[in-house]
Amino acid sequence: MNFQHLYGPIPSRRLGRSLGVSPIPLKTCNFSCVYCQLGRTVNMTNQRKEFFDLQDILGEFDFYIKNGVCKFDFVTIVGEGEPLLYSKIGELIKSIKAYIDKPVAVITNGALLSEEKVREELSESDLVMPTLDAYDQRTFKRINRPHKSISFDSYVNGLISFSKNFKGKIWMEFMMIKGLNDDEESLRKIKGLFNKINYDRLYINLPMRPPAEDWVKVPEKVRVELAQNILGGISLDFLAKEDFYSSIGDDFEAILSIIKRHPMNQYEIESFLNQRKCENKNVIFEKLGKDEKVEKVQYFGLNVYRLTSVRR
Ligand code: SF4
């Protein structure tokens, strides 16, 4: 079958193996972010619509699952534009969850969370990953270039309201751009807004892939470290990529054997466990938290695990 709405699964350091579902036509969005890797928005709209027949998308999903095309850890709804513009996203999420026992994530710019109906539709998802890059109307227009009907205040208030009631996890994303939002004053203003949102994690993204506007540049490393300190988030792009490996069969013992020589942060442990197809990552983290041999230290907003010096 030639899939039009499913892609992957792609390996993700955040989600493991992620099966993508796209219910939105290419570059149909209510933002036209200067850093967008898909280029400038072609269809600028804030009107929600069933762009593709829900049954067609579910039909592809049905085929994928019944034929066991490939194994995956997460289903991620991510448009080639803004997925909350899909008017049947609530039904899409419910149908996927009724079908398979896998978590469903939604990657969104978050602008439509200002609508109560949209917040309700997302309530069945397990993880929502919204973006917040700006700290006022001026920087919002400069960075995200939103549809004219979207104000910065309604956008931020929507994120705050959603975060107060949502039962799943929220992982915020912040795209950091040289000269636009990477100075200390901007970062402190953005931190003030993040403080009002109840989120579980914050990722600092960098425009590492070709952006819509060629003047968009990656901030210097020292600025990224400053952002990690101020925001308490983590930049995956600047993390050293380590391919940890252990021949020890037991996942917990394998981690102990590595951190004996090389401390690992939470993301490195997660990706190591994902590689090993570990199904009880939470249990491993709990064991690490309780084990007296293991020390958890904070470094640039990261939890780093190492063996305590007395036992080395
Ligand atoms: S919200 Fe996402 S898809 Fe839309 S312009 Fe921004 S980066 Fe591109």
Molecular structure report:
- With 312 residues, this protein is α/β, with parallel strands linked by helices.
- It folds into two domains: 6-238, TIM Barrel (Alpha-Beta Barrel), CATH 3.20.20.70; 251-311, Winged helix-like DNA-binding domain superfamily/Winged helix DNA-binding domain (Arc Repressor Mutant, subunit A), CATH 1.10.10.10.
- It is built from ten helices and twelve strands.
- It has helices at 54-66, 89-99, 116-121, 137-143, 152-165, 184-194, 221-231, 251-259, 266-275, 281-290, and strands at 6-12, 16-21, 28-29, 43-44, 74-77, 104-108, 127-130, 169-175, 201-205, 264-265, 294-299, 302-307.
- The strands form three sheets. It has a seven-stranded mixed beta sheet.
- It is globular, with a radius of gyration of 20 Å.
- The mean pLDDT is 88.
- The structure holds iron/sulfur cluster.
- Residues 13-237 form the Radical SAM core domain.
- This is Fe-S oxidoreductase.
- Keywords: 4Fe-4S, Iron, Iron-sulfur, Metal-binding, S-adenosyl-L-methionine.
- GO terms for molecular function: 4 iron, 4 sulfur cluster binding; catalytic activity; metal ion binding.
- InterPro entries: Aldolase_TIM, GTPase_Obg, rSAM, rSAM_sf.
